[in-house]
Amino acid sequence: MASSMVNVFGARVSYSPSPMKCVMTRSVSTTTRVNSVSIRAEAINPDIRKTEEKVVDAVVVTELSKPLTAYCRCWRSGTFPLCDGGHVKHNKATGDNVGPLLLKKPKE
C-alpha cells in the first residue's frame, strides 16, 4: 500500500533596508498551515542627506498638466505612486527623513 504525504509550507519574511535583503524561512508540516508576516517600521533612508529634516527633491518638467505633482518615495502612500503625506507618520515612528519627489511645471 502506497502512502502519500502532503507538505504545507508556512513562511516567515523579514525585511531589512540596509543592505537590501529579504530573509525567508520555511517550516514543513503535514497537519497545520502557518502564515505569518512580520512588518516593523524601519528607516527607509539609511544614509542619504541625513543632516536634512526631510529629503525632498524637485524636478522641473515642461510638459506637465499640473503645476506640481508629488510622487511617493516611502512606499507608505495610500494613493501610491502619488504622495498622500504618509511619510510624515513613518518619519515620526522611525526617525527617518524621507519625503516626496516633486515634479514642477516651470512658471511661464
From TrEMBL:
Keyword Thylakoid on entry: no
UniProt-listed Pfam families: zf-CDGSH (PF09360)
Keyword terms: 2Fe-2S, Iron, Iron-sulfur, Metal-binding
GO cellular component: mitochondrial outer membrane
Iron-binding zinc finger CDGSH type domain mapped to chain residues: 54-93
A GO molecular-function descriptor: 2 iron, 2 sulfur cluster binding
One annotated GO biological process: regulation of autophagy
Keyword DNA-binding included in the entry's annotation: no
Record's protein name: Iron-binding zinc finger CDGSH type domain-containing protein
